[in-house]
Specification:
Layout lengths: L8 H8 L3 H11 L2 E5 L6 H9 L10 E5 L22 H5 L8 H10 L7 H8 L10 E5 L6 H4 L14 E5 L24 E5 L4 H14 L5 E5 L3 H15 L10 H6 L16 E5 L7 H7 L7 E5 L4 H6 L12 E5 L7 H4 L2 H11 L5 E7 L4 H8 L7 E9 L5 E4 L5 H8 L5 E4 L3 H9 L8 E4 L5 H8 L13 E3 L2 E3 L1
Parallel strand pairs: 1-2, 2-3, 3-4, 4-5, 5-6, 6-7, 7-8, 8-9, 9-10, 10-11, 11-13, 13-14
Antiparallel strand pairs: 11-12, 15-16
Helix pairs in contact: 1-2, 3-6, 14-15, 15-16
Protein name: F-box domain-containing protein
InterPro entries: LRR_dom_sf (IPR032675)
Organism: Aspergillus taichungensis
Length: about 500
């Protein structure tokens, strides 16, 4: 038995209970990766779970995660929130470090208008930890709030002496309205061994400055980069507001703040800022005005995984991928494009652009597409039928019904789609094909596909009924089951 290959913490805990010898062997593996979680509406459990771990076990920890399920935005969890409904600055919060922390007292405090810092107990618990220098290798903050100052701010912060961290994941509050400069700045430059950065919900000017400084210092060594701005147009407004607060003289706002200020790209630049990059996942980031320069900066020709979700100018960016005659290294490609992502000229060439990209990705294994009209799915499946390495395929068609209201569209069941489904390499196929059409099509196929089938819908009567219910149970409610032959289409 190889203990290091046991992924289940429950199994590791049970091994520790077998005997003293096994306990001593397994304990370092049990505490190597810690996930501290709490219910959605309560942060106190984070501090309680942290304090419940005996200090002697911290010497084994290399990866630490703070996690709260995020199903809705809860303003009272934000470090900038005050009981009066406004967003307080850091100085105001410090005056109330003795604020009550149980739910009843916290509610009363909010009603009375007092400022409540929801992270007081967690900050105290973090300050009591004394990790040896450079022990941690990864850190995850998946709480959906702005970052508390106790984590990153200054050499005395929780991560102030952990310069060898290689991976950082942050899920922050993309809807927070606080944009005061200098509040809870996230210092990423201090992590000299950083290889992976995943930040979803960037929402303040200082957040973009943190990313800019990190790229300038560590861009050449980043291997995996995930950035999600949630909404490009809102991000533009937030950055412009912070930029004008910082600038004493009247200065024109750049056409694309992300490429021109965060990435510091200039016209005709062909520098690969991310020379080691293998995985690039971007959401709500515009490629307009500098698509060619950004293609070079992200070193797209050498990527193994590329995800673009609702990024304005995505097709123009893909058409500018350098080295059009060279095969791409892509093994995974995900494109989710809404109407705002498409420019008129590129919109007319959507099928040509995507087919050309797939043609160059000769080793493609995973392909996930959510595309609007006028994509030609027949031409696309014909191209895909020659990809013998394809293991997972998702095709979701969107139809514009006016006013940029996108609904699910059907995908024709073609001869080439049948070839793809019958390929033994394919393990999963997801599609917005109407269930009845797909069932009839599958019944006529011999032999039957052996892959798993997933039916995808973002609209429809069943989904509307769930959305309108008082408490939709997404985890356990079966939307529908459609039988065909001896199998089921779910």
């Amino acid at each position: 038995m190889i203990i290091g290959q046991i992924a289940s913490r429950r199994d590791l805990k049970r091994l520790c209970e077998v005997c003293t010898c096994l306990r001593d062997m397994v304990t370092p593996h049990l505490y190597r990766s810690l996930v501290l979680s709490a219910p959605e509406l309560s942060l106190e459990n984070l501090a309680a779970n942290l304090e419940a771990i005996r200090p002697k076990y911290w010497i084994y920890t290399r990866d630490i995660s703070f996690r709260i399920p995020i199903h809705e935005r809860v303003e009272s969890r934000c470090v900038h929130h005050s009981g009066s409904g406004h967003f307080a600055d850091e100085a105001s919060q410090d005056e109330f470090t003795d604020s009550p922390t149980n739910d009843e007292d916290a509610d009363e405090s909010m009603i009375s208008g007092c400022i409540v810092n929801p992270f007081v107990n967690l900050s105290h618990a973090l300050n009591s930890l004394n990790f040896p220098d450079n022990q941690l290798l990864s850190f995850r903050w998946e709480v959906g709030t702005c970052i508390p100052g106790a984590l990153f701010c200054g050499s005395d912060s929780f991560l102030g002496n952990q310069q060898h961290i290689q991976s950082i994941t942050l899920i922050t509050d993309g809807e927070c309205r606080a944009n005061e400069p200098g509040q809870n700045v996230v210092d990423l430059v201090q992590f000299k061994e950083l290889r992976s950065l995943d930040w979803r919900g960037l929402n303040r000017y200082d957040d973009f400055e943190s990313v800019r400084k990190c790229i300038r210092s560590h861009g050449h060594q980043i291997q995996s980069l995930t950035l999600d701005l949630l909404n490009w147009f809102r991000a533009e407004e937030i950055w412009a507001e912070g930029f004008h607060q910082q600038t004493l003289q009247r200065t024109r706002t750049p056409a694309n703040f992300f490429s021109q200020r965060v990435l510091d790209l200039h016209p005709q630049d062909q520098n690969a800022i991310f020379s080691s990059l293998e995985n690039l996942h971007l959401s709500a980031i515009s490629f307009y005005y500098t698509s060619t320069e950004m293609a070079h900066a992200f070193n797209v020709g050498h990527l193994k995984s590329l995800k673009l979700r609702n990024c304005p100018g995505s097709l123009g960016f893909l058409r500018m991928v350098p080295g059009s005659s060279k095969p791409l290294n892509l093994k995974s490609l995900e494109l989710a494009l809404d109407i705002n992502s498409l420019q008129r000229g590129a919109y007319l060439h959507i099928t040509e652009t995507i087919c050309s990209l797939i043609h160059r990705a000769t080793s493609l294994e995973d392909l996930y597409l959510m595309l609007p009209e006028p994509i030609d799915w027949a031409a696309l499946t014909k191209m895909l039928s020659s990809r013998r390495h394809l293991k997972r395929l998702v095709m979701h068609h969107l139809v514009d019904r006016g006013g940029q209201h996108l609904i699910d569209g059907n995908i024709p069941c073609s001869f080439h789609l049948g070839r793809i489904l019958q390929d033994k390499q394919l393990v999963c196929f997801g599609s917005s094909v109407l269930p009845g059409d797909l069932a009839c099509y599958l019944q006529s196929m011999h032999p039957k596909p052996s892959c798993k089938l997933v039916h995808l819908r973002t609209s429809g009567a069943v989904l509307d009924r769930l959305m309108n219910s008082a408490r939709p149970n997404w985890a356990s409610t079966s939307l529908y089951t459609y039988k065909y032959g001896d199998s089921k289409l779910i």
